[in-house]
Amino acid sequence: MEKFPVIDLNPYLDCAQSGNGNEAEMQKLCLEVSRTLQETGALLVKDPRCSAQDNDRFLDMMEKYFEQTPEFKRLQERPLLHYQVGVTPEGVEVPRSLVDAEMQQNLKAMSPQNQPSTPTGPDPKWRYMWRIGPRPSNTRFKELNAEPVIPEGFPEWKETMDSWGLKMISAIEVVAEMAAIGFGLPKDAFTSLMKQGPHLLAPTGSDLHHHGQEGTVFAGYHYDLNFLTIHGRSRFPGLNIWLRNGEKVEVKVPVGCLLIQTGKQIEWLTGGECIAGMHEVVVTKRTLEAIRLASEQRRSLWRVSSTLFAHVASDAVLKPLGHFANSALAMMVRQGQGHTCSNTFFSALVQLLPCRTAVSPFSPIPPSETCCNAIKTLGQPCLCVLVNGPPISGVDRSMALQLPDKCATNFDPCNSFLPRLRLWDEWQDGHDGLA
Questions:
Q1: How far apart, in Å, are the Cα atoms of 298 and each of 55, 291, 292, 301?
Q2: In 3-state terms, what secondary structure has residue 319?
Q3: What fold does the segment set 6-310 form as a domain?
Q4: pLDDT tens column, 330-385
Q5: Which fold does the domain 327-432 belong to in CATH?
Q6: pLDDT digits 0-9 by tens, 130-170
Q7: Which of 146, 237, 329, 411 has its CA 20 to 30 A from that of 62?
Q8: Which ranges of 298-364 would DSSP assign to H, the alpha helix?
């Protein structure tokens, strides 16, 4: 990623703290942040508060955790909460590119050098979900405040997770402020929506001893549903990203730097001026070289990603901000305002939890009264957002589509209009061919 300049956040932090600074220079720096996010969907930053030593401390602990037996790790598994806390075993997360026929056709139309690797099944990686920051005391989505899961034998767990997670959130908040200024929005346009959001520190662990063959896909081609995603430097290469122009770029994060990528929520908030960045994790020749070196040095062969998902608050309404409300895409959404879902994808998913037994693949169990009440509260637009969105582990879309009839709820079919999520995806298809 030599073509990406590293944005040093220190001048902005100093200016914010002292109140002094060259206003023209700060504006220029903020414009560089917003321009880079808009044109590439990715940004390299250096934050003096997030040191290489902090990242190493976090990676050391996560390597130790992922090296534990599968039986031990499954004690932290919470499938009934859709793996939003605790561990997600390998083979659970399914890349959209594996199951979405429309996306597969779009990928075939890409030039060979820019095509993503083709997964052969679910992602062979583990993940750990750890919530970062305070949660609202008054919210419609209390399920998002599930108790954290701490594995036994890791007394440093909470302090290490919270410390690194809060530092990365701080970096995201500064970038969000700078991006807002660069876009001509109020300084707190994004950060005010992020307050008490369901931020997730979500490191992945990939076993290179068993899955270290060149071409192995640990995370299939996808985008993230959150606001901004931030990655610390991994000890093993393998992350590829796609720029807005469709160019595939191998990520090389300098020591002491962080990589930030745009998610779906910032795409909504900017009326499509920023688009959700596509990415994958694959074993490459550079990964094989790093495996060889780690083996010689008797280091761990678990590839740990230092990843955090920053979200807009669950109760906030996602809509284009400021002048972005006049964009072509925003006007498309307004034309269907009677059929939009004001919840985030994850919030809508949580509301579907009472129906989990009724939407499991081939489930013979009818929806309960609690489930039917949840469907009525969720509403047709949000149900359609869920069934038209990315794959959900343990949810059969056809079973979910049958819920309104089984619950005697008078919903229009989901194919009678394009709910908000699909409007944005189809607009992106027409403009970039990457969704």
A1: 20, 10, 10, 9
A2: coil
A3: Jelly Rolls (2.60.120)
A4: 655 555 444 566 666 666 777 787 888 888 776 678 888 888 988 888 888 888 87
A5: Hydrophobic Seed Protein (1.10.110)
A6: 999 988 888 776 655 677 899 999 999 999 999 999 999 99
A7: 146
A8: 328-335, 345-351
